[in-house]
């Protein structure tokens, strides 16, 4: 049993924060000093204090819920479109991308294909669209092409059927980085299955660094490429981004900045 002297070593504020955490609160305990200071300065009534506490906790729960959903859907950390440098690409159809960010293509079951070399923001754009879809309440799966195809390839036949149903029925599927690696004809068949099951039903976003005429090099010996592209592009907005790699430019700027500091 704790002695009175031992109990006095715990500050009242720490004790209160701990107790608030124990009953499931997160936002207020983390900033308890600031919260109480604002309450005192503004002379909140008990009703207002509880209202502010409820709003802070609801906002924190919404934020944590969104973070969990984004992780589950495969959307990692990304830069917002506010940071996108529209002036950097030598060619970009801004109106197509901004329209896609409104999610109008989802209602129509249309696809979006972003084509361009590395470092021009295709993945960033796709992540922002998927993020907007999550906020709008859609189910989303964001998968790099190698991860999606490996996931399907390693399954048992029954497991593969379950995975294909999952990929077919999610609200929005993004397949990122098609063309960065080469795949065998089995991988092409699996990708065709995914695209075909969503055809004229659910939207797909695809990013690729290879023009469509080179997809036979991405999937050598595959016989389904023409049919796969036919399904993918039949109801699709295809936008090409041209220019030099933005990441290379950032790297060069960072190197120059470090040299100037020496």
| CATH class annotation of the largest domain | Alpha Beta
Structural class: alpha/beta
Order of helices and strands: HHHHHHHEHEHHEHEHHEH
Low-confidence stretches: 3-10
Cα-atom radius of gyration: 25 Å
Q: Look up the CATH topology of the largest domain.
A: Rossmann fold
Sheet with the most strands, sense and barrel status: 5 strands, parallel
The total of beta strands comes to: 5
Describe the protein's architecture and organization.
The model is unreliable at 3-10 (pLDDT under 50). The longest helix is centred in the N-terminal third of the chain and has 28 residues, at 46-73. The chain is built from 14 helices and five strands. A five-stranded parallel sheet has the order 2-3-4-1-5, with helices on both faces. The chain has helices at 4-7, 12-22, 27-30, 32-42, 46-73, 94-101, 104-108, 122-135, 145-153, 157-169, 185-198, 215-218, 225-234, 246-261, and strands spanning 111-116, 140-144, 172-178, 203-208, 236-241. It folds into two domains: 12-73, no CATH class; 81-248, P-loop containing nucleotide triphosphate hydrolases (Rossmann fold, 3-Layer(aba) Sandwich), CATH 3.40.50. It is globular and about 70 Å long. Helix 9 crosses helix 11 (185-198), helix 10 (157-169) crosses helix 11 and helix 11 packs parallel to helix 13 (225-234). The chain is an alpha/beta fold. The protein starts with a helix and ends with a helix. Strand 3 (172-178), helix 11 and strand 4 form a beta-alpha-beta unit.
